[in-house]
Amino acid sequence: MSASFDVDALLDSSAIVVCCGAGGVGKTTTAAALALRAAERGRKVCVLTIDPARRLAQSMGLTELDNTPRAVAGLESTQGGSLDAMMLDMKRTFDEIVLTHSDPQRAEQILANPFYVSLSSSFAGTQEYMAMEKLGQLKATGTWDLIVVDTPPSRSALDFLDAPQRLGRFLDGRMIRLLLAPAKAGGRGVMKVFTAGLSVFTNVLTRIIGAQALKDLSLFVTSLETMFGGFRERADQTYKLLKEPGTAFVVVAVPERDALREAAYFVERLGAERMPLAGLVLNRVHTSAVDGLSVQRSLAAAEHLDESGESPLTAATLRVHADRLAAAARDGHMAERFTAAHPGVNVVRVRAQSTDVHDLDGLRRIGLELAG
Amino acid sequence: MSDFPSVKLHVVTGKGGTGKTTVAGALALALAAGGRQVLLTEVEGRQGIAQMFDTPPLPYEERKVAVAPPGYSGQGGAVYALAIDPEAALIEYLEIFYNLKRAGSALKRFGAIDFATTIAPGLRDVLLTGKVMEAATRERRGGGRLYDAIVLDAPPTGRIARFLNVNAEVAGLARMGPVRQQADSVMNLLRSRKTAVHLVTVLEEMPVQETVDGVGELTSAGLPVGGVVINMVRDPLLPHDTLTAAADGKVDAAEITRGLKAAGVDDGARYIDGLANEVTEHARRVLLEDRERTLLAELDRPMYELPLLTDAVDLSCLYELAGQLTEQGLG
Question: Which of A25, A78, A294, B271 matches a 20 to 30 Å C-alpha distance to B121?
Answer without folding.
Answer: A25
